[in-house]
Design brief:
There is one protein chain. It contains 3 helices and 15 strands. By secondary structure, the protein is α+β, with helices and mostly antiparallel strands. It has a domain of 134 residues: Immunoglobulin-like, CATH 2.60.40. A hairpin with a 5-residue loop joins strand 7 and strand 8. It starts with a helix and ends in a 7-residue tail after the last strand. This is DUF4595 domain-containing protein.
């Protein structure tokens, strides 16, 4: 199982600061280990193993606390993991406890698509503007009057074939750009935790994003079959350098 976990996690990219776990000395339900250079914490409770690692991540769609979650069912009954139930709280620098948004796969896909739609609209406008002006050209001619004065005349020419070819290129570029965006959405959806039934002696692993805000202590709660598996992390950058 450990080797399967290492193989799957190697497919993910992580950017930013790693977070240190805050663990009480008398908490016997939790252990930590490094897995492919990343610090993981595991809670063993009620016949389940729940593991977590968390990093700060940044991409074109925002800044996150990106968590990798591992759940192994060691009971004799199947259990359903519901990512909608995962929640997170942050103690900010004022000592206030605030709730953070944990994105489900559907919510994160909407966020990605909304950003992409804006980018596509701007790209389409720019490509269309360039294609529209491609059929026009301007020439200048200078003539001289009998008294020696020079006159410059500007003439605008329109070439429908050039405009047609430019429009074909623009449409191809827009289609390619749209395909790249669709591929990126598929890539970001791969490995994002969704609702899953975990059968006995089976496990799942994947990631979820939490909207990032600055603070000191991040608490992540992962409910499984009526039990809550909590992890506390020190997310103060000064303490994690």
């Amino acid at each position: 199982m450990r080797y399967v976990l290492v193989l799957i996690l190697s497919c993910f990219s992580i950017i930013g600061y790693a977070q240190n776990f805050v663990i009480s000395d008398n908490d016997s339900t939790i252990t930590t280990e490094y897995n492919d250079g990343k610090l993981w914490a595991y809670r063993y409770m009620n016949g389940y193993v729940v593991g977590l690692t968390c990093y700060e991540a940044k991409d074109d769609y925002g800044k996150y606390y990106q968590m990798r979650i591992y759940i192994n069912n060691q009971n004799t009954q199947s259990v359903t993991f519901n990512p909608n139930e995962v929640n997170a709280y942050l103690i900010n620098k004022k000592g206030e406890t605030i709730s953070l948004e944990v994105y489900t796969n559907e919510e994160f896909q909407k966020k990605v698509k909304r950003t992409q739609n804006w980018a596509m609209a701007l790209y389409g406008f720019s490509a269309g503007l360039n294609a529209g002006s491609a059929g026009y050209s301007t020439s200048y001619s200078t003539t001289y009057s009998p008294n020696g004065y020079a006159y410059t005349t500007m003439t605008t020419h329109y070439n429908p074939n050039a405009a047609y070819q430019a429009n074909l290129v623009a449409n191809a570029q827009i289609a390619t750009y749209g395909k790249l965006m669709a591929d990126e959405r598929i890539t970001k959806e791969q490995g994002y935790l969704k609702k899953n039934t975990i059968h006995p002696n089976e496990g799942i692993v994947g990631y979820m994003n939490i909207k990032r805000k600055k603070g000191n202590i991040l608490t992540i709660n992962i409910p499984i079959n009526g039990n809550v598996y909590s992890f506390e992390l020190d997310v103060n950058k000064k303490n994690n350098k």
